[in-house]
């Protein structure tokens, strides 16, 4: 059962993860987060900056990690956005946001990381804009980065409250540019108490929204998310999604690093 595993991280903890081509065909590292807010949380209208630990995640860190694991396809993503309600998607002007976002992310990927970044992931859990604005800005950003050869892949990470109005609208408009959908199961309105329920939700997503071949099962190991989805339920349900539903992969946000990231980014 070869699959894709994605780890969301703000530091170099991915170096401690056991990677084997017996289980994985691809290992994705999603750096959290690039944000278009300054250190005082003032919006910068598309001028993105890294909030992960840039002292630990350097060009050398990434290139060495890829070199040390030739048996597995290692890809690095920059995840733009934020978890929770802080730092929402809220462009001041669509045209300038797209221009600023394209230029700033190009600078991070090409100049800081020498094009060792493979793609971007879009993970906003709070949006203060119309769905039309969201689709225009994010869709055009992905298109610009791909057309300019800055990235090879793009993913979106929807959750229950924003899925239909925002993320599915985005996917419907730019499906040909979006390689993966990493659905965040920890944000369900109703708690998921059984592995079968997780599989039911996954099946419904495939039926109504996204192709199975692109749809990850996403999970957060943060303590506050356990009330919605416990680790054991996700492990059992996620394994069944990979084996029985032939899903392409799973992702995990690891415990406590968001709080640490918040402290590091101030």
TrEMBL record:
GO BP terms in the entry: carbohydrate metabolic process
Every GH18 domain range: 1-266
Name of this protein: RuBisCO-associated protein-like
Primary gene name: LOC101495044
């Amino acid at each position: 059962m070869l699959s894709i595993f994605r780890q969301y991280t703000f530091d170099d903890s991915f170096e401690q993860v056991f990677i084997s081509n017996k289980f994985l065909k691809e290992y994705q590292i999603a750096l959290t987060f690039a944000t278009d807010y300054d250190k005082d949380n003032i919006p910068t209208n598309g001028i993105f900056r890294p909030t992960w630990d840039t002292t630990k995640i350097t060009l050398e860190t990434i290139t060495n990690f890829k070199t040390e694991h030739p048996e597995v396809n290692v890809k690095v993503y920059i995840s733009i956005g934020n978890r929770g309600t802080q730092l929402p998607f809220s462009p001041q002007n669509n045209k300038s946001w797209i221009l600023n976002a394209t230029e700033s992310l190009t600078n991070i990927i090409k100049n800081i990381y020498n094009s060792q970044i493979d793609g971007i992931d879009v993970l906003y859990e709070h949006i203060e804009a119309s769905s039309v604005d969201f689709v225009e800005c994010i869709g055009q950003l992905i298109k610009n980065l791909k057309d300019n050869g800055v990235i090879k892949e793009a993913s979106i990470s929807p959750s229950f409250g924003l899925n239909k109005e925002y993320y599915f609208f985005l996917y419907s408009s730019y499906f040909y540019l979006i390689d993966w959908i990493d659905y965040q199961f920890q944000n369900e309105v109703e708690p998921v108490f059984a592995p079968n329920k997780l599989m039911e939700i996954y099946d419904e997503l495939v039926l109504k929204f996204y192709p199975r071949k692109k749809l990850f099962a996403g999970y957060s190991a943060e303590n506050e998310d356990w009330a919605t989805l416990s680790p054991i339920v996700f492990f059992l349900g996620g394994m069944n999604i990979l084996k029985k539903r032939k899903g392409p992969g799973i992702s995990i946000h690891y415990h406590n690093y968001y709080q640490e990231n918040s402290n590091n980014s101030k």
